Amino acid sequence: MVFPAEEPVGRVMVMAVACGLLAASLSDWRATLVMAAMAAGVFVGVLAHGAPPTSAPQGFTPIFVVAVVLGVGNRRLRLMRSDEGHRR
Predict the structure, then answer these.
(1) What is the pLDDT of residues 56-80, one digit of tens each?
(2) Are 54 and 48 in contact (CB under 8 A)?
(3) What is the pTM of this model?
(4) Is the peptide bond before 52 cis (omega within 30 degrees of 0)?
(5) d(CA 9, CA 16)
(6) Does the keyword section mention Transmembrane helix (predicted)?
(7) Confidence of residue 51 (pLDDT cuts 50, 70, 90)
């Protein structure tokens, strides 16, 4: 296993980076919302209950929200930059 079972932070960070990358590539806000909810649900429901179980896995949910917000912001900035380049 890459990360020790006692420390869920590594698993959270890997999933948060994946969420951010997916949020940056998805153009539909509904797909982004479902992807973020699924990531948080998978972490809380499956990964946090590994051996040994993580206490209060819901406390890591804001990390997924921040990752999605950063991914969506990155996508919007890229769109604004590309629109600006076409106007010149």
Answers:
(1) 777 888 888 899 999 999 999 998 8
(2) yes
(3) 0.77
(4) yes
(5) 10
(6) yes
(7) low
**High-pLDDT (> 70) share of the chain, %:** 82
46-51 CB contacts, 8 Å cutoff, 24+ apart: 47/8, 47/11, 47/15, 48/8, 50/5, 50/8, 51/5
Residues 6+ apart with CB under 8 A from 10: 2, 3, 4
Report the alpha-carbon angle 82-39-57, nearest 5: 135
| Distances, alpha carbon 12 to alpha carbons 23, 30, 49, 73, 84, in Å | 16, 22, 13, 20, 36
Least Cα distance to 35 among 5, 72, 3, 2 occurs for: 72
